[in-house]
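Q: Sequence in, structure out?
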Amino acid sequence: ASDFSRVTAEDVAIWSAMLLIILALIAGALLHAYLACAFAAQFTQQRLLISIAAYFVIGFIGQMAALVAAVFVAFRGYKYLNNTGFSAASFFGPDNTLGVIVLTLLAVFALIALVDALLWALTQWLMTKRLNLA
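A: Exactly. Output:
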């Protein structure tokens, strides 16, 4: 026997925030590829090879930036740990767990959107200023 709970407003808020994050990540993946192609278009020969190499270099730079950000957040969040381990009540607070979760998801979305905006701006700059394709 399956027992399904009803959908609540809290569920909609969390799933909507997750959907925004997924859409921003898809846009970032496409912008990543466009930036690699725009960078490679500056060269006259071996554009495909340069595009592939640029794709991996941009990905490596992004991974290193994400690693540094994760380490920074981990060390800043260290004060919320107690001697017995992670305490969700000390991190989220006993009364507003859902609000903090949704706020955290929206902060992650804002960070991803900021990176997407940077990728878009770099691609636009390469296309208009360096390649004169405006």
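The longest strand covers residues 81-82.
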